[in-house]
Amino acid sequence: xxxxxxxxxxxxxxxxxxxxxxxxxxxxxxxxxxxxxxxxxxxxxxxxxxxxxxxxxxxxxxxxxxxxxxxxxxxxxxxxxxxxxxxxxxxxxxxxxxxxxxxx
Amino acid sequence: xxxxxxxxxxxxxxxxxxxxxxxxxxxxxxxxxxxxxxxxxxxxxxxxxxxxxxxxxxxxxxxxxxxxxxxxxxxxxxxxxxxxxxxxxxxxxxxxxxxxxxxxxxxxxxxxxxxxxxxxxxxxxxxxxxxxxxxxxxxxxxxxxxxxxxxxxxxxxxxxxxxxxxxxxxxxxxxxxxxxxxxxxxxxxxxxxxxxxxxxxxxxxxxxxxxxxxxxxxxxxxxxx
Lengths: 104, 225
What we know:
The structure holds two protein chains of two kinds. In chain A, about 75% of the residues lie in helices and about 0% in strands. Chain A is an all-alpha fold. By secondary structure, chain B is mainly α. Chain B has six helices and two strands. A two-stranded antiparallel ribbon of chain B has the order 1-2. In chain B, strand 1 and strand 2 form a beta hairpin. In chain B, helix 4 runs antiparallel to helix 5 (about 160-190) and helix 5 packs antiparallel against helix 6. Chain B starts with a strand and ends in a 5-residue tail after the last helix. The interface between A and B is large, with 49 and 51 residues.
């Protein structure tokens, strides 16, 4: 049985537009560093821009936009949950390590 | 109807499918269910690998974040020029390689072998340029005294350890990708491999690009003095 894939080919014009958008995001990131914004604002801005760039890459370059929605819902929310858990619990793990009683 | 060597009789379409499966893998299996994702098994396998690998990179980057902000003597090793300029060039090179890979996938789907080879060749070239720029940067840092266990600025040795570990793992992915694309390109040209193989390899290459979108800002841009 040959699988007929759902995806449509968006074409090179769309890909070049997306590429230009991603290069623009990289330029914004570098500009933020060049103008020396505060550390907190820089971290927040870079994370937002990186996630935006990754979302665009997933949708267009990796064709997730053109696949059945079930593929997205099977793969991505679980991955984001894993990242959330790392964010929430690893800090506690490090803190608990420091709370250990000293060795006799 | 066709009689097989063991005396088993089957219809010609089934025989063709079995032969096709033997050559091209199980995606052409006769009695399998349709994929709920409507993609080939090798593409789904690549997606599962990508999710697992994304969790690996995520764990390493979260670990980097905790160690960075937990180190009071963290030092920022990079200056805007030449370090960030070099990293910017590497970023644009990698982004462009994703574009050429998309060209290769599109050409392969249309069965244009010559164009596919040109696009994949450009991707390999850009991937190699990225790796060379990266290794050149590493060489300059080693020359300055940076290593996995040494910080020439006198601060935390974790700076070098984390930088070389994270960028090293990514560079390993880039080099593996370049070799994979080369193998796939040769296989496609000699008609041993299909457009599906090119597309699946492209998926991996875009993932390598995607990881860099986090490595570049977090490891380079946040460490400019």
